[in-house]
Amino acid sequence: MTTTQVTLVQIDNYGPWTTTPEPRREMDLQTLQSRLFADVAQFLGHRDAYVFFTRFDNMIAVTNGVDGAAHATLQESIGNRYPVSVSLGTAVAERPVDALEAANGRLQTAGSAQDESRTEVLAGEYLAETDRSDLQIAHFDVVNATGKYTDQLNEYDTFINIEQAFGSLMRHLREAHGALSFFVGGDNVVAVCPDLPESAFSSAVSHVESDVDIELQVGVGRGASAHEAGFAAKHALEDCRHAGTSVEMFGAPAASD
């Protein structure tokens, strides 16, 4: 059984801030968002957690092993260094989507994301202990993306193909299993999953190929932290590339990192 701790990082009252006292320059906003994501990623990455940019004003993190005090430090650091503040909602569940629903609910109960009086909410539950079976992470990529797309099409059409594969995969894993999947650049998708057998990943690969005619391969890892599980998934994906298989499970331990 998996046990996933998910944290929602939400910029407080961000929409109104971007237009007050007048609309701000778009590239200034993009710069702020990307720097904020980079800082959150660095902070959580040093604690073996993962964070995904999703919509940038709302980021989703897998924070097994990161306690309430560390969350408070992250929140304080952002408040000290940025013109915006963030609220953090954290929850734990077997299925990642259920943990996210509960984390979202903690912030929604405190008030609207655009309520100027709702700032720096820190609410949630945190795992007291971690176990090597807590997390299952899958790392997908497109088979021969460079040969099929990057070297053959213009970049925008390549992007469309990759996004189609990502959209098909994320919907399938969310609806069928309660997993959360995130595009992480290039042709890569990282999925945070409940306890799934190899057949579920084979079905996901088949679904995407049938739906959008794009071939995927996936490595799957387990671990006590997002880094540990994710690094094992990377090794398993390398096994796919070397063996020409579509699914490989578990790979090498993160200790080799």
UniProtKB/TrEMBL annotation:
Gene3D superfamilies recorded: 3.30.70.270, Nucleotide cyclase
Name the coiled-coil region(s). Answer: none
Write out the catalysed reaction: GTP + 3 H2O = 2-amino-5-formylamino-6-(5-phospho-D-ribosylamino)pyrimidin-4(3H)-one + 2 phosphate + 2 H(+)
Q: Under which main EC class is this enzyme filed?
A: hydrolase
Which Gene Ontology molecular-function terms are recorded?
GTP binding; GTP cyclohydrolase IIa activity
Question: Is Nucleotide-binding found in the keyword set?
Answer: yes
Any idea what this protein is called? GTP cyclohydrolase III
Q: Which organism is it from?
A: Halorubrum miltondacostae
Species classification: Archaea, Methanobacteriati, Methanobacteriota, Stenosarchaea group, Halobacteria
Write the gene name.
gch3
